Amino acid sequence: MTPLETSAIDTEVVVVGAGYAGLTTAWRLADAGVDVVVLEAADRVGGRVFSQVTPSGVRVDHGGQWIGPSQRRFHALAARFGCRTFPTWETGRHAEIRADGTRVDYAGGAPDTGPGIEEYERVTALLDDLARTVDLEQPWSTPQFTEFDSLSAEDFFRAQTDDEDALARLALAIQGVWCAEPREISFFHVLFYLASGGGYEQLMETRGCAQDARFTDGADAVAHALAKSLGGRVRLGEPVLSLRQTAHGVEAHTGRTVVRARRAVVAVPPAVIERIAFAPALPVARRGWVRHSPMGRVAKVHAVYEEPFWRTAGRSGIATLYGDSPVGVVFDNSPEDASRGVLVAFVYGDRLDRWSAGTDTERRQGVLAALSAVAGPGAGRPIDYVEKIWPRTGWTVGGYECFLTPGGWTRHGRDGWREPAGLVHWAGTETASVWNGYIDGAISSGERAAAEVISALAAVGHLG
């Protein structure tokens, strides 16, 4: 042990990270009779899913918050632990605030007509066609894999259309889903992600799609239930500083504890993996994958009001904003009983870079101006105003998920995506084939990692 370490723990499997991936891994292992310890750097579980109560008593989700009908694993866990959901509010007219300040109210998924809409719909239909060719289990087997991965999303979009309004709509879609700019993300990764989630509409829309419902007690309620079921196996405030493979297994060092185990599962975002010193060093492919996987840039800002006043005016609170506004998308995030009104504003990518550099007052003024354009002047007078700027968050360093830069899949995907590195296995939503980037994907990745470990332990006679 290092001089600071005061205790040693022997177990069969050590799991690094207590987000949904790590907790699911541990839960599955424990259920199979495998002794497991979970080490979490933060003082809470849930990872990129985190809810908190505001001063006025409203619970808000700072990270991942929605669940869709086809996210079956998440639904199964929620049902298992009795965590209730309710439909996302979408009743009333949505708003589009265009670059020139024009406001357009509409019903349904998007305005029927407007600048760039026809070209936008043509290109997004093409995205769905191409996404249907993706091999989710062996992405490198996809037709035109190398060609698509050599392009950024912006390269592809500009090759398809020179309509700047359509390009702005496509850019907001990239920002909203990946918290990145079109120039930054591999076009193949966009196609893979669309295929993983069931198509463009599934990712973008509300009812029956990815934003269908929310959790009454916050989206981390299931994570807390999982952690409770694991009891003392979950150790908070224990950042893994190094992970060493030895002749006898693995050793995870946190600075105050060393955990010795037969196998390890690392269930943190790729962008966080470089904070851990591995011995021996990770394979070149895994290191390359990590370095091609930056975390998205996003802030969620909640403004709380005495009541959801926009509803009485026939407005849904859902909006998209173009132009100079720091805010890209707005949703009604009021509690199920509407005892308070809540609007949540999303600040993405380059907008976040500019907005986050402002003073507290400047940031607040920018967001409230956007909310006032969406919901009326009353939106400028909240009773609570809460920002969560994810790139400033200690152990997460961004949100909601990592994305692949051009060339990342081609150079490192086959051996670096989720292939174990000796006794070290990988979990996390970025390693999922279905609902990659979402909570459901994190859960499935934990199930896969647990199955890998159970098989490996059984193969050498260390199970059952």
From TrEMBL:
Gene3D superfamilies per record: FAD/NAD(P)-binding domain
Keywords: Oxidoreductase
Cofactor list: FAD
Top-rank taxon: Bacteria
Domain Amine oxidase: 21-454
Protein family according to the UniProt entry: Belongs to the flavin monoamine oxidase family.
InterPro entries (alphabetical): Amino_oxidase, FAD/NAD-bd_sf, Flavin_amine_oxidase, Flavin_MAO
Record protein name field: FAD-dependent oxidoreductase
Keyword Oxidoreductase carried by entry: yes
